[in-house]
Amino acid sequence: MQVLSKLISKDNIWKTVGIFGILLIVAKIFIGQNPVLDSIYIVGFAFLCSACLFIGVYFHQPYPVKGWYFLCFGQFFDSIGNYFFCRFFYLGGGQIDLVFEAIFYALGAVFFLIGIFSMINQFKEEVSSSTFVNGLIITLATSIFIWVVSIKDDLVVPNNLIDTILLILFLFGVAAIIFVLSLIVMIRSGQITAIYLIFCAGLIMIIGILNYFKLYGWTSNYFLLEGISTISNLDLFYPVGYLLVSIAFLHPSLSKFKENQLFLRIDANRYIINILGISFLIIPITFLIQFFEGKDINDLLMISSVSIVFILVFFQVRNLSRTYYQIKDKNLELNNQNEMLKTLSNIDHLTQLFNRKFLFEYGEQAIKNAQFVKKRLAFAMIDLEDFDYVLERLGRNQADIALQDLSNTLLKIKRKDDIIIRYGGSEFMIIFDNIRPELDFENLMMRYRERTKLSMSIDGQEFILSYNTGIAFMPDDGADIRTLVEKADRALNQAKREGKGKIKFYNKLEEVTNLQRLKI
Q: What's the pLDDT tens digit per position in 108-161?
């Protein structure tokens, strides 16, 4: 029971049906042609296809679901038409069978058209002039294949104008059906496996239908064939086509037909190039088949068809290349915009310095780089003294100007590889790169402080705005950005507690703490 459930599961049923159908078709090849068995195969595979269509649409819910269900009903009526077709052509039925055949085929055609037009309406934005040219390329290559393999050698040239016009209309109708199939292949630009299967099934069934047209009806006048036995495996064209359609509708790729699904143009171009390449190869393969069958090859037809398809493929590939570079340029532009936005998100809008977000992103990477080359870094956190007093007395605008002046001064005096960051409020962080052990860092910070003192006038009196400093070193005080920022902040708080213009090192705070513990 568990094995059966797995075989008919949503993801595996297409494989099960495919293997079952192939086995039946292989068995039929060995059995040979028989009117009763031929009828059973054609009708049986037709109704199997109808069931698989309904199951596939129910499982995968392709968009638009109503349109796909119309196709299912079209196939169902077509299957009933096949029953009456087999009764009339294989089993010697009467005219009533021919009437019912025509009625049910017509019903099937109506439902097929409704389903196809509903899908065209939903996916019309994906159909462009380029799509039509691609369809023409596929149609031309495939039509030449069908002409050479299935029509040319059996055709009788008409001897009057009416028959000539009717034959041209007949052949044009075949080409039109191939063109519709080609446009179906271009839906989602060939990115869906089920579409390939449907296209192949369509071509096989077209050849099968052509064979029946060679034998029956007004078109039989244009062909040399005299009976069913003159066409080998005539009975298998329908079953093979129906089997491929069944697999297509059960295949999981059918679920890719979703509303408002993202359509990846670069992927589409890649698939289109593959399709055009296969179309181009169909023509030489067609004439190779003729060669190995010992038939005469029409050199003019071969050269002209290859030339036309080559020219169309060339222009389409050229167009696709242009599209690719347009997309590439657009992607580059978007990447530049993203980088700009990313940079803006790391910039403090007032001082134009890097902000706290940048500190924690860049700082971690700076530490890793320093560890790799064995460099020593210093993290100096500074906080303006009496900034709240300045803000209260002079207002926000003057306080902002003071912050901008300090930022500009720090940028002027810093070394090339040092980084100035506005941490928040009146606090700044300076990351000093490559600090040598012998450097008198306290003296360096005192020089910094002297050069960055701001002179302001409050109530007619000169007011000097300076700052306290807390410092932590990497690797001495820590090896990650959050630890170093926290320790620099603790050193800064100690400097604030001791007065104004103080400079404190975290490692010296630790030494004092340890000495106090020893005294206790």
A: 989 988 988 887 777 766 666 677 777 787 888 888 877 777 777 777 777 778
Q: Which residues contact 309 (CB under 8 A, 6 or more apart)?
A: 137, 140, 141, 279, 280, 283
- Quote the tokens at residue 506: 């975290």
DSSP strands (E only) in 459-502: 461-465, 467-474
Q: Please, are residues 179 and 135 in contact by the beta-carbon 8 Å criterion?
A: yes
Q: Which residues contact 175 (CB under 8 A, 6 or more apart)?
A: 139, 143
Is 330 part of a structural domain of the chain? no
Contacts for 4-8: CB closer than 8 Å, 24+ residues apart: none
Instruction: Tell me the C-alpha distance between 100 and 40, whole Å.
Output: 18
Of 263, 292, 313, the residue at which a domain comes to its end is 263
Residues 252-274: tens digit of each pLDDT? 888 877 765 544 444 455 666 66
Indicate whether this model's pTM tops 0.70. no
Euclidean distance between CA atoms 137 and 140, whole angstroms: 5
What is the domain range of residue 131?
2-135+146-263
Tokens 């509303």 belong to 259
Q: For residue 202, count other CB atoms closer than 10 A to its CB.
A: 21
What letter would DSSP give residue 62? P
Which of 255, 492, 224, 486 lies closest to 384, judged by CA? Answer: 492
Are residues 184 and 257 in contact, defined by beta-carbon separation less than 8 angstroms? Answer: no
CATH of residue 389's domain is 3.30.70.270
The structure tokens 């049986």 sit at 44
Of 214, 231, 263, which marks where a domain is finished?
A: 263
Alpha-helical (H) ranges within 35-160 are 35-60, 65-89, 95-122, 129-146
**What is residue 379's DSSP assignment?**
E
The tokens for 10 are: 């949503």
Q: Spell out the residues 6+ positions from residue 361 whose beta carbon is closer than 8 angstroms to its own.
A: 346
Total of domains in the chain: 2
What tens digit of pLDDT does each residue of 440-486 get?
888 888 888 888 888 777 776 777 888 899 999 998 888 899 999 99
Distance CA 101, CA 318 (A): 48
Token representation of residue 83:
């029953």
The whole-angstrom separation of Cα 402 and Cα 391 is 10
